[in-house]
Design brief:
Layout (H helix, E strand, L loop, with lengths): L1 E2 H11 L4 E4 L6 H8 L4 E4 L3 H15 L3 E5 L3 H15 L4 E7 L15 H5 L5 E4 L6 H13 L5 E7 H5 L1 E2 L16 H13 L3 E5 L6 H14 L3 E4 L13 E5 L5 H9 L2 E5 L22 E6 L13 E4 L2 H9 L9 H14 L12 H11 L5 E4 L5 H7 L8 E2 L9 H11 L5 E6 H7 L3 H6 L5 E6 L4 H10 L14 H8 L2 E5 L5 H11 L3 E6 L11 H6 L2
Parallel strand pairs: 2-3, 2-4, 4-5, 5-7, 6-7, 9-10, 9-12, 10-11, 12-13, 13-14, 15-16, 15-17, 17-18, 18-20, 19-20
Antiparallel strand pairs: 1-8
Helix pairs in contact: 1-2, 1-6, 3-4, 3-15, 9-11
């Protein structure tokens, strides 16, 4: 006989959960009490949005559901950005929400929300547990739903009285992972397509990858000498210094890379959906009928033919497909010279500029970081023009080194870094954030301090919401409205939280500031005071305003 709260924690333990991210609330005190006697680490966060993003980052880096607990009403709605990210990014995640007691349901009780209705459109599954005896059943299903097919977030509402009720239930068992594998006929057809192709191109994306799958696909690409691009913010899926790597098929891809995708006679899309951002608003590959012969590999049959009609649809997870592809005997590669050309073009494109407006240039800073960061360093970031410096100029080498939302959500970098460092304490973790981006969840720096997680947050401060200002100057030149920010002293803020703070006002000062931050052994913020004119690597705000 156990309480509902104890059964929840037992189920998490049975499924190998090692940590949860939470903001406490009186609506799930029974779970908090059960966690007191558990080996599961409860990382207590400052705001539910940050907690949910931490859970997303754990799911993103491991393929196992990240777990988050929040309280009812505003606690749940604060967590909704993390659910939206996990849904759009196909990340396995489970959000538990304390709910009002059953007798008060549908009376608009204190902080009551209908979570099925609220989260239904943005979660893979949203449900409520009415009977504590069913907790093992529903949690087994939750882990399965979150990880199978196209992974995504599951939201489970927990009525307060259900958690304190005492019931008899079966001992929890771990869920059974569901795999989808390519058939022999599909692999034979793919081989036939490759043997007749003249300009093939591969785009990797989505989730359900792991370190072995990345190595398998690299082996296959090498055997066929295939040019490989990574979809927006999926760059950790292929070694950027491998001779087959052609670049980031993301926002503003290099013209050479974009032309290679458009002119391909065979596109192999593995794991991803190739949505609006990587497809350059559905222009690199047209919907519904691509001009290229399309082979689409996806673990969820509902995604095959949803936006693009494939010539060959392969219903398989990225990991299972990579294994099968690596075992496929390679044919000739008449396009190998083109693969070499595309890789050289990528190396040129990803070499940062050394000059720019103002006293601080991001190009030399990125070049310096490339010389000092280890291959397994984890980079996290949210959204903003500052992220261009990471996506274009950092050369990712390994799996599980990138934490960034393909949904384009701001505020992700700092909480993502906290989760990454909790997962991999032995690895260097760097968060990039704009001043606006940091302001949204920067308080999770306090979480890093509380748990002794020495992340380094690089705050690129230009005093504006940069991406919106860029669009504003293009569409309404000279009419600035709603895009200016007055910021605190970020280095002083770091020290106030109990961390290490640095301010960089000249390019030459960054290296020493970074080394001091790293040597401090504490969570650190390095504030870079960037001229707002340096809005992109190639164009200034004035250029954009004048060229409308």
């Amino acid at each position: 006989m156990k309480t509902g709260g104890q059964l929840i924690v037992d189920c998490l333990e049975a499924n190998g959960v090692e940590r949860v991210f939470s903001v406490p609330g009186e609506s799930y005190l029974a779970v908090l009490d059960a966690l007191h006697d558990s080996n599961i680490r409860n990382i207590v966060c400052r705001q539910e949005g940050g907690a949910a993003m931490m859970a997303d980052c754990e799911g993103r880096l491991t393929g196992r559901p990240g777990i988050c607990f929040v309280t009812r009403g505003p606690g749940a709605t604060n967590a909704s950005p993390g659910i939206h990210i996990a849904m759009q990014d196909s990340t396995p995640m489970i959000l538990f929400i304390g709910q009002v007691a059953s007798h008060a349901r549908e009376r608009e009780a204190f902080q009551e929300v209908d979570y099925r209705a609220f989260f239904g459109p943005i979660a893979k599954w949203a449900t409520e547990i009415d009977d504590a005896a069913r907790i093992p059943e529903i949690l087994t299903r939750a882990f399965s739903v979150a990880t199978s097919g196209r992974p995504g977030p599951v939201v489970i509402s927990l009525p307060e009285d259900m958690l304190t009720s005492i019931v008899e239930a079966p001992a929890p068992r771990p869920y059974t992972p569901v795999e989808t594998r390519p058939g022999a006929a599909e692999m034979e057809e793919l081989a036939a397509f490759l043997k007749t192709a003249k300009r093939p191109f591969v785009i990797l994306g989505g989730s359900r990858w792991n370190e072995t799958a990345v190595a398998d696909f690299q082996k296959a690409a090498e055997a066929w000498s295939l040019p490989v691009g990574c979809s927006f913010r999926r760059q950790m899926l292929f070694d950027h210094l491998h001779p087959c790597y052609a670049g980031d098929v993301g926002i503003g891809p290099s013209p050479t890379l974009a032309d290679a995708v458009r002119q391909a006679d065979l596109l192999l899309l593995v794991g991803g959906r190739f949505s609006e951002m990587p497809s350059s608003d559905y222009t690199l590959m047209k919907s519904p009928y691509p001009e290229q012969k399309l082979v689409h590999v996806h673990a969820d049959a509902d995604e095959l033919g949803r936006v693009y009609r494939p010539t060959l649809a392969i219903n398989a997870s990225a990991a299972a497909f990579a294994e099968a592809f690596a075992a496929l005997p390679a044919g000739g590669s008449p396009w190998s010279a083109e693969t070499k050309r595309l890789h050289e073009a990528y190396l040129d494109w990803s070499t940062p500029p050394q000059t720019g407006p103002g006293d601080v240039q991001m190009g030399p800073i990125m070049a310096y970081l490339e010389t000092v960061l280890p291959e397994d360093a984890i980079i996290t970031n949210g959204a903003g023009n500052y992220a261009t410096w990471v996506h274009r100029f950092h050369r990712f080498r390994r799996f599980a080194t990138q934490g960034a939302p393909t949904s384009g959500s701001m505020g992700y970098g700092t909480p993502g870094a906290v989760a990454a460092k909790a997962l991999f304490p032995e690895r260097q973790v760097i968060a990039f954030a704009g001043d606006g981006c940091f302001g949204m969840n920067g308080q999770e720096f306090a979480t890093a301090v509380q748990y002794g997680l020495p992340i380094i947050v690089i705050v690129v401060n230009n005093g504006i919401y940069g991406t919106i200002r860029m669009h504003q100057e293009r569409e309404y030149p000279g009419r600035v409205s709603g895009t200016s920010i007055r910021n605190p002293d970020f280095a002083a803020l770091a020290r106030a939280y109990g961390g290490h703070g640095e301010t960089v006002e000249k390019t030459a000062d960054f290296a020493a500031a970074f080394e001091r931050a790293r040597a401090s052994g504490m969570p650190a913020i390095i504030e870079i005071k960037l001229d707002p004119e340096a809005i992109t690597p190639a164009r200034t705000l004035s250029d954009i305003r004048e060229r409308r």
